[in-house]
Design brief:
5-stranded mixed β-sheet; Archaeosine Trna-guanine Transglycosylase, Chain: A, domain 4; Pseudouridine synthase
Length: 288
């Protein structure tokens, strides 16, 4: 049976993304496993897991747009930005009207950069920022470009607000929540966070860890062809042999981008780029 591809896991609250991998290593008996974008321990939701050789494709998903549903509580701010941290500031909740709320939403959609939180996995002089922050050290991180593709209020029951946002790679929802609250002249802490989408992948198609075991996990394994949003190029068996040995191939197709390469017998071979003159260049090869 096939032993490489993706598992879409619905991560529970209270465990790290690495702990999910540790559990899956025991279930699958495969050591080479990785995830495509960390979820904080308090967060839940969609966590695509790369199994076996599919770990080489992690970057294709981690760079995709992601959608989250977040609940925030106005009135206080913590050092971590979520309810696992220590309260560092408090303020009486300021009421706001519909116009002020829309202005705050518009401000989120106009964001072009964001400073990552001190409690993050970003490395500073070889150490994780959160390790330094836990020691009380002053962690200064540089702003990074972000794009907020959509920002929608789902419910408002003060002091709680629930919103849904689709964001670019590298966007920290905990910081986004604080920034949104500041636009309303408030402080906020993210009290719940759930990732529902990554590119075209949806939480509805994910499976929980208790549902998986050594006998059924391969049943839920998804082919890279069904996960990656790239066009497919079919090549002959003769060309497939060349491709699998890293040899460039002339084709009559001009995607002018990356594509999934599939042999005429429907075997997924890997990823390649196509030049303007139709030259297919292997980038990632899975079969030989």
């Amino acid at each position: 049976m096939n032993n490489f591809g993706f598992l879409l896991i619905d991560k529970p609250e209270g465990i790290t993304s690495f702990q999910v991998i540790a559990k899956l290593r025991k279930i699958t008996a495969i050591r080479k496993i990785g995830h495509t974008g960390t979820l904080d321990p308090f967060a839940t939701g969609l966590l695509p897991i790369c199994i076996g050789k599919a770990t080489r494709l992690a970057s294709y998903l981690s760079s995709s747009k992601k959608t989250y549903i977040a609940q925030i509580k106005l009135g206080s701010k913590t050092d971590t930005g979520d309810n696992t941290g220590i309260v560092t500031d408090q303020k009486t909740v300021m009421e706001f009207n519909d116009v002020q709320l829309q202005n705050a939403i518009d401000a989120m959609l106009a964001l072009e950069e964001q400073t990552p939180p001190a409690f993050s996995a970003i490395k500073v002089n070889g150490k994780r920022a959160y390790e330094l922050a836990r020691k009380g050290e002053n962690v200064k991180l540089q702003p990074r470009p972000v794009k907020i593709h959509s920002f929608e209020i789902m419910s408002t029951e003060l002091p709680f607000i629930t919103y849904k946002a689709c964001v670019s790679k590298g966007t920290y929802i905990r910081v986004l929540s604080e920034t949104f609250a500041e636009e309303l002249d408030n402080l906020a802490t993210t009290t719940a966070l759930r990732r529902t989408e990554i590119a075209d992948l949806h939480i509805d198609n994910a499976i929980t860890l208790p549902e998986l075991n050594a006998d059924n996990w391969q049943k839920y394994l998804i082919s890279p062809r069904d996960v990656l949003s790239l066009p497919e190029l079919f090549i002959s068996l003769a060309d497939a042999n060349k491709f699998c040995h890293g040899i460039k191939i002339m084709t009559d197709s001009k995607f002018l981008t990356e594509c999934l390469v599939v042999s005429e017998n429907d075997t997924f071979l890997g990823i390649a780029s196509v030049s303007e003159d139709g030259l297919l260049s292997p980038r990632i090869v899975f079969s030989s």
